[in-house]
Amino acid sequence: MYDYDSGINMASDGRVLSITNNIFSNRADNTVNDIYMEGATSSSNSTVDNCVFYNSGDIRISWNGSQYTSLAAFQSATGKGGGSISADPLFTNATDNNFTLSVGSPAIDSGVVSAAYQTFFDRYGIDIQEDIAGTTRPLGGVWDIGAYESGGIDSTPAAFSFTDVTGATLSTVTTSDNVTVTGIDNTTTLTLTGTGCEYSINGAAFATADDNVTLNDNVALRVTSSASHNTAVSCVLNIGGVTDTWSVTTLAAVADPQTPRFRGSSMSGGWR
Ligand SMILES: [Ca+2]
Hints:
Bound molecules: calcium ion
Oligomer: single chain
Strand content: 25-35%
Low-confidence stretches: 268-272
Radius of gyration: 32 Å
Number of strands: 20
Number of helices: 4
């Protein structure tokens, strides 16, 4: 709900509302209410859960005749309003009617599954667990608050690739080129597997333990090449679920100067 004069109104007692996962933002009239709940029965049985309230003036909730101008006061007095947030929902561009959630929105993954969806499905056989754009909820494992389910924070980087090494000398510490972490919003995970493999982030000391990387970090790998000719050792770097295998292959064996082995003298000696 955005740029409204009066929000949700229940002006007769006896009805029960489940007000869940709603955003109340930029109420235009500071003399009316985000929520107006009249009557003891409606007020007692109705619920407010996991909503975001954001107004330039006060939050305004009228509940069973009492006026509340802060979320904390409403929660304290009524025991309702659990999981709710008083903060900017960070719409992508509300003035242009884009009410999707931008990165960092407190509404992302702050919703709750309402039993109403299952009731609707049981009654009508229609699954309405989706947002206004038809995106199946939830994404990121948890429902978002508001009309749109966000794709959440992007922690999956763009593909990356180390340059494989060939012709490496035997038993030599070999360091890869750098790859730059791109395509994520902020941070993501780093996991390295492979015997003897190590990684370095932005030139820091080489390490092996799982870690996190940040957008535009540079990552290099190193490993000791095989003690055998023409043999590869491999490291698999996993950044936010995207992997690349970096291999170091030793040079081929030099041809044996003694070959061919069967020389005339030996052959003649064998045929007496
Ligand atoms: Ca979500």
